[in-house]
Amino acid sequence: MTVKLYDMDSHLSEFSATVLSCENAVAVLDKTAFFPEGGGQTSDTGFIDGVKVLDVQIKDGVNYHYLEKDIETGKTVNCKIDWEERFRKMQNHSGEHIISGIVHSLYGYDNVGFHLSKTEMTMDFNGLLTRDDLLKIELLANKAVWENVKFNCYYPENLENLEYRSKLDLTEDVRIVEIEGYDRCACCAPHVNTSSEIGIIKILNFEKCKGGVRLWVKCGADALADYNLKYQNAIKISSLLCAEQDNIAEAVEKQLEIEGNLKYKITDLKRRLIAEKVNAFSGEGEITATFEADMDIKELQLYADSLYKKSGGIRAIFSGTENEYFFAIVGDEAPLQELFSKMKQSLNIRGGGRGSMVQGTVFASKADIVKIML
Predict the structure, then answer these.
(1) Integer Cα distance of 114 and 121 in angstroms
(2) Which domain holds residue 198?
């Protein structure tokens, strides 16, 4: 069995070990500080004698290190963990324990799902929580950080009389992570020594999930990076809208209201323009193809239908750019479907329809469209 240095010292980032075996770029060491994938957390990465460690898995007490290439068996090697990645995971995972302990204490809910990768951390609880609940939980979690409480990780001799949280029904080799005054939980992962190392705990979002709730949370360096990203976005929005950063939500709402009113006015003007075009239409020809600028599909439908109601025939309206046009065509069903079948045989068309209207997109030049239709 591999000696698990990460159980003894979660802050050990560099160590020496002997290579017991290495086949097909999978190495076994006599001891390791590389935490393997487990408990919802992805494995550590780093280097063994300069060779990159891509993944670590554990089976029957043996840790398998998946490398970029083989290393020499029997050699004493220098091993270095990607400490920034490890510490980030420790901050997040330790923050998750604090949140889970508080949720269990206040509401009696169990943590039934946990995932921690390089990009995100989620946790699932088997009960519903409101936004106000989460604000309360977040504040209490950060108070635990400010109190600088200890994390004690150990293998108890007697589990029978020990109250602790666990997702699985464990009976032996149970490692307990105890946060003084807040939580006691079975866990195999490395954790911080004291809660102040976490820095900050931020609940970003939540949604209902399998009768309970799923939280998205960031802690420590990840929470700071998330804040900095959103702060940069707030600066840009503030500058674009000429608004104070504290008032950008209100400024955005006002801008959306202005845009909504403008869209309404533009739609009204377009409808008036269509009505004038229809009034001016002479009705010459059984089939007409009209090309307009900046019309959406609803406007195309209205225009084509209005022309058809005025003068019958087959009335086609196109709008777009060269070689890609949206269209709506209205006419008596039989001749319309015959024309549309002819168009589909000769042109690249996406769309269709029944009865007296067809619509869609045609990928062809104006000249080719007119040639087929008229």
Answers:
(1) 8
(2) 86-222
List CB contacts of 316: < 8 A, sequence separation 6 or more. 287, 288, 289, 290, 304, 327, 328, 329, 373
Residue (of 312, 305, 316) closest to 343 by Cα position = 316
> Domain with 70 in it: what CATH number?
2.40.30.130
For residue 244, being part of any structural domain is answered with no
pLDDT classification of 66: cutoffs 50, 70, 90? very high
Distance CA 63, CA 206 (A): 35
Q: Is the same domain home to 121 and 212?
A: yes
Q: Are residues 72 and 121 in the same domain?
A: no
Helix extents (H) in the chain: 5-8, 83-107, 131-146, 220-241, 248-280, 297-311, 333-346, 366-373
Distance between CA 192 and CA 359 in Å, rounded?
A: 62
Asked if residue 123 is part of any domain, the answer here is yes
**Do 32 and 140 reside in the same domain of the chain?**
no
Statement to judge: residues 90 and 216 lie in one domain: yes
Q: Which residue has the tokens 């004291």?
A: 194
CA angle centred on 338, ends 333 and 339, rounded to 5°: 100
Single out the residue of 189, 177, 127, 126 nearest to residue 152, CA to CA: 177
**Would you state the pLDDT for residue 336?**
95
- Report the SS3 class of residue 37: coil
